[in-house]
């Protein structure tokens, strides 16, 4: 349960595992469009990682519903609080939408969705070249949106850690990893 202004261990584990997977997926996505020789191997990694992100996002949503996150600082300006909540829900939306779009895209393209071994996902749509094209463009565009949102999320986290020093970053990193810088001392005279 998320108490005392900190996320619990499961919330932190899911957050950091997904953060790593999403960063890896973004780099794999870039590699898939820029390297013909690595493309088949990267696609073979991309599919199961995408489904893993989808499943972890669903698990995170269930956990978030059962253990709501700690409240934001009371002195956080209203616009920043609204932006924080909106960006988190947008992140969750993209973590769900991107794998589903990829799965749907492959289905519409008539490509089997192989996972590991002989495991294969059922198609979400019948083969349709026009739908495949649209879904591929949407998947790519949302990939760029996810990349931008991840950078914004990282920037906000560092802002809370290094500028505001309000415990928001520490609430997710508190397991002894990285914490905020100590508050500036007011008893030290500037040179």
From TrEMBL:
<keyword id="KW-0408">Iron</keyword>
<keyword id="KW-0472">Membrane</keyword>
<feature type="transmembrane region" description="Helical">
    <location>
        <begin position="141"/>
        <end position="162"/>
    </location>
</feature>
<dbReference type="InterPro" id="IPR011577">
    <property type="entry name" value="Cyt_b561_bac/Ni-Hgenase"/>
</dbReference>
<dbReference type="InterPro" id="IPR052168">
    <property type="entry name" value="Cytochrome_b561_oxidase"/>
</dbReference>
<feature type="transmembrane region" description="Helical">
    <location>
        <begin position="12"/>
        <end position="33"/>
    </location>
</feature>
<keyword id="KW-0479">Metal-binding</keyword>
<keyword id="KW-1133">Transmembrane helix</keyword>
<keyword id="KW-0349">Heme</keyword>
<feature type="transmembrane region" description="Helical">
    <location>
        <begin position="89"/>
        <end position="111"/>
    </location>
</feature>
<keyword id="KW-1003">Cell membrane</keyword>
<comment type="similarity">
    <text>Belongs to the cytochrome b561 family.</text>
</comment>
<feature type="domain" description="Cytochrome b561 bacterial/Ni-hydrogenase">
    <location>
        <begin position="6"/>
        <end position="172"/>
    </location>
</feature>
<keyword id="KW-0812">Transmembrane</keyword>
<keyword id="KW-0813">Transport</keyword>
<dbReference type="Pfam" id="PF01292">
    <property type="entry name" value="Ni_hydr_CYTB"/>
</dbReference>
<keyword id="KW-0249">Electron transport</keyword>
<protein>
    <submittedName>
        <fullName>Cytochrome B</fullName>
    </submittedName>
</protein>
<dbReference type="InterPro" id="IPR016174">
    <property type="entry name" value="Di-haem_cyt_TM"/>
</dbReference>
<feature type="transmembrane region" description="Helical">
    <location>
        <begin position="45"/>
        <end position="62"/>
    </location>
</feature>
């Amino acid at each position: 349960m998320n108490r005392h202004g900190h996320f619990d261990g499961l919330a932190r584990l899911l957050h950091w595992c997904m953060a790593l997977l999403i960063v890896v997926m973004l780099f794999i996505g870039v590699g898939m469009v820029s390297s013909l020789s690595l493309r088949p191997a990267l696609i073979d990694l991309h599919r199961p990682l995408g489904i893993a992100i989808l499943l972890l996002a669903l698990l995170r949503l269930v956990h978030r519903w059962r253990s709501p996150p700690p409240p934001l600082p009371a002195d956080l300006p209203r616009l920043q609080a609204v932006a924080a909540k909106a960006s988190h829900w947008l992140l969750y939306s993209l973590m769900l939408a991107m794998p589903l779009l990829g799965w749907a895209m492959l289905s519409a393209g008539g490509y089997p969705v192989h996972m590991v071994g002989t495991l294969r996902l059922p198609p979400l749509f019948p083969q349709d070249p026009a739908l495949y094209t649209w879904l591929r463009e949407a998947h790519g565009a949302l990939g760029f949106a996810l990349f931008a949102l991840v950078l914004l999320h990282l920037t906000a986290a560092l802002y809370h850690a290094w500028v505001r020093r309000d415990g928001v970053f520490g609430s997710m990193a508190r397991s002894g990893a990285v914490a905020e810088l100590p508050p500036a001392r007011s008893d030290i005279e500037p040179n």
